[in-house]
Design a protein that fits this description.
The chain is mainly α. Helices cover 61% and strands 9% of the residues. It has helices spanning 39-80, 85-130, 135-144, 164-167, 177-205, 208-226, and strands at 2-8, 17-24, 146-149, 152-155. The strands form 2 sheets. It has a two-stranded antiparallel sheet. Helix 2 packs parallel to helix 6 (208-226). It is elongated. The two termini are 22 Å apart.
Length: 244
């Protein structure tokens, strides 16, 4: 199968000139891959793996956030209800469990984000090598505000609009839903529960230092689990986009 394309864009995108020389496309995957068959099928297999990871992340996040909502309800009842010896012990157990659950959720979310990042890197290598215009087009648009497809050009609706990654140039991690929902939000929940434990300890013991100690212990546990850097997928050379 032969493929050739010549694109020349109108202002203000004159710098985006595309010239893809004619070349022969072998539609079979290389023999060293775990799947021997049409390239489109192999590409679909990798895309499906990413969607599978996304679905697992969403389902587990819903369950864990539902548990946090249940704990929040119980926490509200304990704070506003009548104080007793039973409620005091329940308050300590509830806040400790909530904090540990938040730490677990943040750890799981970070791991899931790394897994999805790995498969997206792999998919980008495949699309670059086989000239498949699919998943990376969205990230080209996020980066440059324009994506060149074999069927035409997708650009910004207004020139004054910024690309997503330009808008969050210094805080790009905020553009990742797995980072925000899977890591940052659970970290904030764990911190909230640690504050709750400190409050209950200080109220029960009537000693301020007891609350600070309980809070400090949980924060230390959170830092010990989440502070070490977890390996993130990358490629040894800069990634070329469809425009290259």
């Amino acid at each position: 199968m032969y493929y050739s394309q010549q694109l020349s864009l109108d202002p203000p995108f004159q710098v985006w000139k595309i010239s893809l020389s004619e070349f022969i496309v072998d539609d079979n995957t290389p023999k060293q891959t775990p799947y021997e068959g049409p390239r489109a099928a192999f590409h679909t297999l990798v895309v499906g793996r990413i969607y599978h990871e996304d679905m697992l992340f969403a389902q587990r996040s819903y369950i864990l956030l539902g548990v946090h909502a249940f704990l929040m309800t119980a926490f509200t009842v304990l704070v506003t209800g009548k104080e007793s010896a039973v409620t005091q012990h329940l308050a300590i157990a509830l806040t400790s469990f909530g904090c540990l659950l938040g730490i677990f959720q943040a750890s799981f979310g970070r791991q899931t984000g790394r897994a999805i990042g790995f498969w997206r890197r792999y998919l980008r290598l495949i699309e670059k090598q086989w000239q498949i215009a699919f998943d990376h087009l969205q990230y080209d648009f996020y980066t440059n505000g324009i994506a060149v497809t074999p069927f035409g050009v997708i650009c910004k609706k207004k020139l004054s609009q910024k690309a997503l990654y330009d808008l969050y140039e210094r805080t790009r991690f905020l553009t990742s839903i797995t980072t925000v929902v899977g890591f940052l939000f659970p970290m904030a929940l764990a911190l909230f529960w640690a504050i709750g434990l400190g409050y209950f300890l200080s109220e029960i013991t009537h000693r301020y230092w007891a609350g600070v100690l309980g809070f400090g212990v949980l924060v230390f546990v959170e830092l010990a689990v989440l502070w070490p850097s977890l390996a993130e997928a990358d490629t040894p050379e800069p990634q070329a986009s469809w425009q290259d």
